[in-house]
């Protein structure tokens, strides 16, 4: 049984069937983590691939893509164990609030 590897940084998922390799996302990526593949998809188009690391999750690639289903940005949820205790208002400040 294969385990699902949880990535700790954001990453794009490219739908290779929908991608037409227009290159807009590659140009829009500030981190330079997208590139054109030399392979083609089932429709005969080249497609974009993620280099594997370095995505900031900004979404520029997503917003510049003309194909609505070609790119998704996955942003992992933060681990609640690492967030520390929930911040609460100090009790003294709550007592000082006067009703209107």
From TrEMBL:
Q: Where is this region: Disordered?
A: 76-100
Q: Which domain of life is it from?
A: Archaea
The record's Gene3D superfamilies line, in alphabetical order, gives: 3.30.70.20
The organism's taxonomy opens as: Archaea, Methanobacteriati, Methanobacteriota, Methanomada group, Methanobacteria
**The name this protein goes by in its record:** 4Fe-4S ferredoxin iron-sulfur binding domain-containing protein
Q: Name one Pfam family in it.
A: Fer4_7
Identify the residues that the record assigns to the 4Fe-4S ferredoxin-type domain, covering every copy: 10-39, 45-76
Instruction: Note the InterPro entries from the entry.
Output: 4Fe4S_Fe-S-bd, 4Fe4S_Fe_S_CS
A GO molecular function held by the record: oxidoreductase activity
Organism for this UniProt entry: Methanobacterium paludis (strain DSM 25820 / JCM 18151 / SWAN1)
Q: Where is the composition biased (Basic and acidic residues)?
A: 76-88
């Amino acid at each position: 049984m294969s385990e699902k590897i949880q990535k700790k940084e954001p990453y794009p998922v490219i739908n290779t069937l929908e991608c037409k390799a227009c290159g807009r996302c590659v140009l829009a990526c500030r981190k330079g983590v997208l590139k054109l593949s030399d392979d083609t998809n089932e429709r005969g188009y080249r497609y974009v691939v993620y280099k594997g690391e370095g995505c900031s999750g900004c979404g520029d690639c997503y917003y510049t893509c003309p194909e609505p289903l070609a790119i998704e940005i996955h942003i992992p949820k933060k681990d609640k164990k690492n967030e520390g205790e929930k911040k609460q208002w100090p009790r003294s400040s709550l007592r000082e609030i006067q009703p209107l």
